[in-house]
Write a structure and sequence with these properties.
The structure is a single chain. The protein is mainly alpha-helical. The chain has two domains: 134 residues, Arc Repressor Mutant, subunit A (Orthogonal Bundle); 38 residues, no CATH class. The protein has seven helices and three strands; from the N terminus they run ααβααββααα.
Length: 176
């Protein structure tokens, strides 16, 4: 097996360990992009549905559906924005805070377990490999996927000038 498939398999393995730990902590219905959206909303002022959509690279309608699902599970509350009558503010509930705490605890436990299994030298070697692959660019998965999606949409003529500008930068387009 080559390095690429091994890295993808490792990522899936990490996610499966995180899923199991979250289920053990009482958060068994973990969906993409729950954790990301909850982190967007973890600032004291929360976030907005539009900002969440921009962060995820999806429409406001898509973001509304994601937020509605989180609201149904009592992870977020939605209220009228204090700054705009057309916008909704999204803030964490105590259950949402617990989710993020459980997620942090799970990732720390996975890291500790892997460090124990690999030993300090093996664990350090892993990061040397990852740093070599990254070449110091520190590109986030979201930015890479947006850039790839944008290139595809441009090649098929499916992208508007506004979404092209947002997708091509890969930068954070919203303020929270």
């Amino acid at each position: 097996m080559g390095l690429g498939p091994a890295l993808r398999r490792a990522w899936v393995g990490y996610q499966l360990r995180a899923d199991a730990a979250m289920a053990d902590a009482g958060f068994g219905e973990r969906r993409f992009p729950d954790g990301r959206v909850l982190r967007f909303c973890s600032e004291p002022t929360g976030s907005t549905i539009s900002a969440i959509g921009r962060e995820l690279g999806i429409t406001r309608q898509g973001a509304s559906k994601v937020v509605a699902h989180l609201r149904e599970r009592d992870y977020v509350s939605v209220s009228d924005s204090a700054t705009s009558g057309r916008e909704k503010s999204v803030t964490l509930t105590p259950r949402g805070v617990e989710y993020l705490e459980a997620q942090r605890k799970a990732t720390r436990a996975i890291d500790a377990q892997l460090r124990s299994e690999l030993g300090a030298a093996g664990f350090s070697s892993l990061f040397i490999l990852l740093d070599a692959l990254d070449q110091g660019e520190q590109i986030r998965m979201r930015s890479y996927l947006q850039r790839s999606t944008n290139a595809y949409k441009e090649s098929t003529g499916e992208v508007s000038s506004r979404s092209s500008a947002v997708l091509s930068t890969g930068s954070r387009q919203c303020s929270r």
